[in-house]
């Protein structure tokens, strides 16, 4: 490969990485959490994000919730709210796209932007354009971002990590060697622990060590293509294209509803959860996906959460499977005499139905029967409106909604009378306990 040109930025690639993204979103949404140690992941018992306040105290995602509680009893632990995080992610992508159409939605808290050739358009340098985008993101979202501007994705990603939080690092082709000199090879995107051990056996300990290797050396050591590409990018070449397809895949389906007044009645709360599960499953079926993981939560009057995340033994979007599971686990979340104001469910690790593996023990046969019933339910909903037919376990929630609707009519609000009377269906093999 030829040495990179003397142009400081043959391509100008910017990487944006939200600082403590989930915890920061929680703090932006809820003033009471600002300035506090906030930990997300409460529903699964393992931290998914630690607020900057927590990081300053040395708390990290690698710790268990118990370790965090011991080290920092005042930490506020909240369940992950993936709906909110993904709304913020999409706002982040949209803001970046105002400056350039070339944006890769890399993950829920990261994106790449290609700003090559835009200097004239903005009458600004690449660093100034990257800074403009950073300011727009930070002021409009109320979050801070680590930002790196470099000649390609691998080096931009290393640059955005350089100073934390709220860092801004610009590295031209000519500045790369100095930047890579002190960077351990294992810190480079795409190089895991195993490959960094392998590379260190070849004498490569820093990112610069790899950048200094030539084609002959790479060939002689039969270095695999992904590592060759990393090597070229560390040298300043642009190899890895941005993936500009918006991420249309739905990562998770979340259904949650607040009810008022709050209630402590077990049956009513379970029914609310059941209704959310049904609605989440309707959405999953509409998108043709099955979940491999589910989480349930109850939100108290005091805005604390009691929740659980459960990996599923087989992928499903069947409400009966999930309601049965929720029923089995309900008492792990529910406390009598506590007032609850909302319930929620999140279907996660979604996969297309046709990629759903067949199981060995006949669960698919049961699913087959229940999927015929569900198809009929969807057809009725399609014809008569949402939730024309629902499971008996959700009845209390629907009755509550119906009562509320009537109350509103009495108070003079406009509300169309529903001429389809809601019906419940009794499906014996679904085995609903509630
Ligand atoms: Mg991040």
Q: Walk across the major sheet and give the strand order.
A: 5-6-1-7-8
The major sheet is characterized as: 5 strands, mixed
What assembly state would you assign to the polypeptide chains in this entry?
single chain
Helix content: 40-55%
Give the CATH level 1 class of the domain at 253-430: Alpha Beta
Outline: elongated
β-strand amount: 15-25%
- DSSP E strands, number: 14
- Rg, nearest Å: 26 Å
Please, how many helices?
16
Average the pLDDT over all residues and give the rounded result.
83
The structure class reads: alpha+beta
Order of helices and strands: EHEEHHEHEEHHEHEHHHHHEHEEHEHEHE
Task: Enter the CATH topology name of the domain at 253-430.
Answer: Dna Ligase, domain 1
Give the terminus-to-terminus CA distance.
Answer: 68 Å
Question: What is the structure about, briefly put?
Answer:
With 434 residues, this protein is α+β, with helices and mostly antiparallel strands. It contains 16 helices and 14 strands.
Describe this structure as you would to a colleague.
The protein is built from 16 helices and 14 strands. It has 434 residues and is α+β, with helices and mostly antiparallel strands. Strands 5-6-1-7-8 form a 5-stranded mixed β-sheet. A 4-stranded antiparallel β-sheet has the order 9-12-10-11, with helices on one face. The protein has helices at residues 21-29, 52-56, 65-71, 82-99, 119-122, 126-141, 153-160, 176-181, 193-201, 207-211, 215-220, 225-235, 266-286, 319-333, 363-384, 395-410; strands spanning 13-18, 38-40, 49-50, 76-78, 103-107, 110-114, 145-150, 168-170, 253-263, 289-300, 305-316, 340-352, 389-391, 423-425. Helix 16 (395-410) links the parallel strand 13 and strand 14 (423-425). The structure holds magnesium ion (MG). Residues 17-18, 21, 109 line the site of magnesium ion.
